[in-house]
Amino acid sequence: MQETSAPATAGKAANMPDLVPLDLAAAPLVNRHLAAHPPEVSELTFTNLYAWRQGRPVWFMELAETLVFLIRAPENGADQLLLFGPPVGPLPLATVMAQLGETVVGGVRQSAASIAGLDHNLFTIAADRANSDYIYRVSDLATLAGRNYSAKRNQIKHCLRDYACVFEPITAANLDECRELLNRWCDLRHCELDRGLSGEWQALQKTMGNFLEFKLLGGLVRVDGAVEAFAIGERLNRDTAVCHFEKSLPTIMGLGQLINQWFAAHCLGGFTYINREQDLGIPGLRQAKESYHPCHLVEKFTALRTS
Fold first, then answer.
1. Which residues contact 82 (CB under 8 A, 6 or more apart)?
2. Is residue 292 part of a domain?
3. pLDDT higher than 50, residue 10
4. Residues 248, 138 share a domain
5. What number is the average pLDDT over the span 276-300?
6. Which of 71, 112, 198, 206 is 20 to 30 A (C-alpha) from 55?
7. Closest CA to 247 of 157, 294, 179
């Protein structure tokens, strides 16, 4: 069940506003702030914050026209909080932390820009490589041109040779088929035995349940008439889209490479870059993301109070 009660804030600053749990009613406010101050890190979309709140409850507050998101600090006690992502608005991170008081023990998923003004005598700052975002040129993923992508092209060639594959945008008419594929995918991966995969299943269910309302971008691949792959993303900032989820039936070789290419080619023509999120420190996932030759990473950091 979604947690809605805010952590106790006995040690908060006197002027600290009340915490508000993130729910669907918060979407207009959150999206208004994000439109005015476009984010760089993949966590800061309403879709991401809302979809993953089952396992990671999120609260928010406004400080001087700046929106901040907070989560519990699991290693520091139930009544302590962490800022989740950079502040969205004009206030710098150092000012936000000073105003919030000692109940907020630090911040996670912070960008290089957000930590730049922190006093290193007051905060211990560490790079968070596992959560750094991979950024690719849309044109690279859409065309797979050049020697770097010859293996990807060959995998796709074999897939198209062996199967009748057709691309479709995700619409209200085929969303249920995407859900059905997700369930089949989870059956193959035994999601019920893996906390991470179970959480992803829940997040995807939330995302697909609000696909139209959130105005998301999505594409799928039919193989011999059945939906066997899909990808879902949205605008992150002016020139960058973010891909939140990508699933393909693992028994069809080359299908993962195909949905990756076709999503970029058919859904992301208005963007220069695509943020394909982090590798979570998983070796196989890191290798897969690096094999697509990102143009750069969005580095993230953790900043914790020293006392």
1. 70, 71, 72, 73, 104, 105, 106, 107, 108
2. no
3. no
4. yes
5. 97
6. 112
7. 179
Give the count of domains, the chain.
Answer: 2
Average of per-residue pLDDT across 202-209: 96
Question: Which two three-digit tokens encode residue 202?
Answer: 């829940």
Tokens linked to 74 = 């699991």
In order, the DSSP letters of 229-293 are: EEEEEEEEETTEEEEEEEEE-TTSTTHHHHHHHHHHHHH-TT-SEEE----TT-HHHHHHHHTT-
Answer yes or no: do 116 and 213 share one domain. Answer: no
pLDDT tens-digit readout, 168-195: 999 999 999 999 999 999 999 999 999 9
* 163 lies in the same domain as 120: no
Look up the pTM and report it. Answer: 0.93
**Which CATH number characterizes residue 212's domain?**
3.40.630.30
Residue with tokens 């000692």: 102
| Domain of residue 173, residue span | 134-277
